[in-house]
Design goal:
It is a single chain. The protein is an alpha/beta fold and about 325 residues long. About 45% of the residues lie in helices and about 20% in strands. Helix 4 crosses helix 11 (about 295-320). The relative contact order is 0.18.
């Protein structure tokens, strides 16, 4: 009798394990909800919609994009952290996610513990540019102008505690200069005012500022990555111009809520990685100024942790406070 019961229990266990394995290998079983932190038409939205069809084909389910902007990306990030349906992921801008962990008094989630890092997709440098009427032709010229007129120069960014703001404060500290930060509600507004000459100096992302740089509406002085941008190879980095190690980039990555099964994480990582490298998408990505910098879950988590440490040091030094 005991032998029969043991065999029965073993059979039930095998069936349950097989069913669980089947459920795991067939994920996703319904459309995947993809939360974005910005309005339609922005950098994150453009990247997500470029990948949407390829991801759907690889995962075998529709990818439903939801734009949930606001509160320094905290709204969209909280949605991901609180998701319990097993089919919700979100895109983050890493330096904004890291900045929120350092400058916001209270967040509705833990920036590390409440998430499962899946993949870093791209790193995109910021560019320091000036209106053509501004006399500076190089970064050294800009620094000299700032030193000659402490507190008399104004630089625009897409907002308080964003990557461009941190890049500006890092330059101020590194170069020993004093410029006044002018935050805008988004890169579109800051770039438009820079193009019109309302503000003479702007820190903007290479992707969004690219058309203005190409048209000559803005003059680039430096990019804020360690390596030059392949789309503007003639523009030197800040690091090359006397500030070794200077690096502040906008990085876009994918995360899910905490506790995602490893096989689901791998399936998502592989799908995004393959989509980013698909030959048919390369012309569209290149046209948008996008270059892949793919990091796996472990490396991506370490990158987020390092950005939190780096930005916290800048925030404390510059007394940057969050704004929602």
């Amino acid at each position: 009798m005991r032998t029969i019961m043991s065999m029965a229990l073993l059979a039930v266990t095998i069936v349950l394990q097989a069913a669980n394995a089947s459920a795991q290998t067939t994920w996703p079983t319904r459309p995947v909800r993809f939360i974005l932190p910005a309005v339609p038409g922005g950098g994150t939205d453009t990247l997500a919609r470029t990948l949407q069809s390829a991801l759907a084909a690889k995962l075998g389910q529709p990818i439903v994009i939801e734009n949930r902007p606001g509160a320094a990306f905290i709204i969209s990030t909280e949605i991901v952290a609180r998701a319990t349906d097993g089919h919700t992921i979100g895109m983050i801008v890493v330096n904004t996610h890291a900045a929120n962990a350092t400058v916001q008094d209270k967040l509705p989630y833990d920036s590390l513990k409440d998430f499962t890092p899946i993949i870093n997709l791209i790193n995109s440098p910021n560019v320091i540019a000036v209106h053509p009427s501004f006399p500076a032709k190089t970064l050294a010229d800009l620094i000299d102008a700032a030193k000659a007129k402490p507190g008399g120069l104004f630089y625009a960014t897409s907002g308080i505690a964003g990557g461009q703001h941190f890049a500006g404060e890092m330059l101020k500290h590194s170069a020993g200069i004093d410029m006044v930060h002018v935050p805008y509600k988004g890169s579109g507004a800051s770039l438009q005012d820079a193009v019109s000459g309302q503000v003479k100096i702007v820190f903007g992302n290479v992707i969004s500022a690219g058309p203005f740089l190409t048209a000559g509406s803005l003059r680039p002085l430096a990019v804020t990555s360690l390596a030059r941008s392949p789309f503007f190879p003639d523009v030197p980095t800040v690091a090359e111009q006397g500030f070794p190690g200077f690096s502040v980039e906008d990085s876009y990555g994918i995360m899910g809520p905490a506790g995602m099964p490893p096989d689901v994480v791998k399936k998502l990582h592989d799908a995004f990685s393959e989509a980013m490298q698909a030959p048919e998408l390369q012309p569209r990505l290149k046209q948008q100024g996008i270059v892949a910098n793919l990091l796996g879950p472990v490396e991506f988590k370490k990158f987020i942790e390092s950005e939190i440490v780096k930005l916290r040091e800048i925030a404390l030094r510059a007394n940057i406070k969050g704004s929602q």
